[in-house]
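Running this now, will post back.
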Amino acid sequence: MPTTLTASHAPVPDVSIVVPIYNEEENLADLVARIGQALAAQPLSFELLAVDDGSTDASADRLRALAADPRYAPWLRPVFMARNYGQSSALQAGFDRVRGRYVVTLDADLQNEPDDIPLLLNRLETDPRVDMVSGWRKDRQDAELSRKLPSRIANRLISRATGVHLHDYGCALKAYRRPIIDRIRLYGELHRFIPSLAREAGARIVEVPVRHHARARGVSKYGIDRTFRVILDLILIVFFMRYRQRPLHAFGGLGLWLAAPGALALLYLLACKLLGQSIGGRPLLLIGVMLVLMGAQLIVAGLLGEILTRTYYEAGGAPQFYADEYAAPQAAPAANASARHEAPA
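Update: finished.
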């Protein structure tokens, strides 16, 4: 009887596709079939990590049925989260299990076009200078006011704040070289800022126009309320990119800006007191004291952050930087090299 290879013993694929899934029961059959068709038309081997993020519909059952189908069993790898943790956690669960040298992500709602995956992979295959290819939904098929306008504002704001200029941060269709994925970790809702995290990990990023479709089945999981969460996450990612290794510059700098005017105000009041003026009831006294105390607290917070940062890196929590050593090509041995070492006749 022939033995069926399990995921751990199957040949290592060239491409790992990670798709987070939440309540997409109606789209899963088409999604898996279309990904299989798109990847079968190109030479690279592949696997599909379909990560069910605690769906409350029958998505998990549908994934199990698809994984048992002989057409998909060799390359479909369902992953089931214990509960709904969010898109970032679902993506990270997939990233932790990828085996390919390229990693591709896309959404499960079929608004991304699976046939565009080979386009992104071809760019990675043919351009060694590129580490990440980000999709750009140039002709986006969504509502103008509720989806496209907030997205344009967010894209410009994120690009300006992080220095990573992209037209479309929200497009889930992206392709990466495996080392970049190995260098980043997703927490909270940082999936929106993967390009910024990838740039921090040393990735060279390009953007490629891709197709986009209106949602045909199911319900969108995104709403206008996410705009406020994006702003908070943006503050976090800017701090992470600029001050992760020097928190004292962030907290201490703000502390000095507060403490300096407070100290000047107190010096002015001291001079007034020495001249015989009463300062006990002046609001400037309270303002000066508060500014100095707030500034001192921020400076102390920065010092504590420096201690924690040193402890984190020195304890092996994460590398401080990434570097690749250049390996010069080996010169071909001379044709008569062996003749010089032969024993005389």
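DSSP finds ten helices and seven strands in the chain. More later if anyone needs it.
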